[in-house]
Amino acid sequence: MSDKVNFGVAERQGEPVRAGRCLGAEGGLGRIKERLDKVRALIQEPEFLEGKGLSNEVNSRIFCYEPENEMVVRHFVNQMETDPSLDCHLKICNLYKTFLSICDDMDITDAIPDMEEADGSVYLLEQLNSAIGNGEFIDKIQYEPHEPGDVLMLTGVGEVFPFMRIHTLLEALQPYFSDVPILVMYPGEFDGRHVKLFNRLTPNDYYRAFNVIE
Q1: Residue of higher predicted confidence among 115 and 15
Q2: Helix 95-105 with 134-141: angle, nearest 10 deg
Q3: pLDDT reading at 184 higher than 90
Q4: In a designed cystine with 156, which of 1, 95, 117, 207 is the match (CB 3.0 to 4.6 A)?
Q5: Is residue 135 classed exposed, middle or buried when 0-12, 13-18 and 19+ CB atoms within 10 A define those classes?
């Protein structure tokens, strides 16, 4: 399982505001690149790094984009990861790679395809969800010490579905990253109350994250 789990799920493949739909409607390649440039600028701003203007809310934000622009976003993230000119300490965590690492640690990676073939996707998902929860993800994501200027960027949200749901992970991460801003690169919608992966799956409640850029 060096690349992707063979899991039978058809769905696999600005300004901070409290409400209003973050549709990720880029309106073309130029628009998504423009929005990503604004993200690059935002994460270096002292107000973002210090969580100012959030009315005591946790400093977590969601950048929504159209799922078809996934490769553009991945290219942007790869560039950011190796950009020495950034005026922040960007910590990038791909949640799908994190999931695979957890499976490797549990020595179950090689058994997953056979389990799916023998018992079906539904049973496999039940077993993985019972064995791997937010705690296992947090153990992998957490690091010490946290430094001023750190930014945690979460990617791979679409890839890791349905093995992990971002709205539950964000809630669980907050006590561990209260001093570090979190930015989620999200292929879907967030309207200030609900996240909707791929713009079409059943919405899940999440009240605390702020949209980043329209």
Answers
A1: 115
A2: 100
A3: yes
A4: 95
A5: exposed
3-state secondary structure of 184: strand
Is residue 12's pLDDT more than 60? Answer: no
Angle at 70 between CA 66 and CA 74, to 5 degrees: 135
Return all residues near 209 (Cβ < 8 A) that are at least 6 apart: 60, 61, 62, 170, 184, 190, 195
According to DSSP, residue 22 is labeled B
Quick check: bond before 145 cis, omega within 30? Answer: yes
Q: Whole-model pTM?
A: 0.81
> Does 16 have pLDDT greater than 80?
no
Domain spans of the chain, in order of start: 29-211
Longest dimension (CA), the chain: 53
pLDDT in tens, 34-55: 999 999 999 999 999 988 766 5
Token couple for 61? 């934000």
Surface-to-core class of residue 71, CB atoms within 10 Å of its CB (0-12 exposed, 13-18 middle, 19+ buried): exposed
**Considering the chain, what is the average pLDDT of its residues?**
81
CA 104/CA 89 separation, integer angstroms? 28
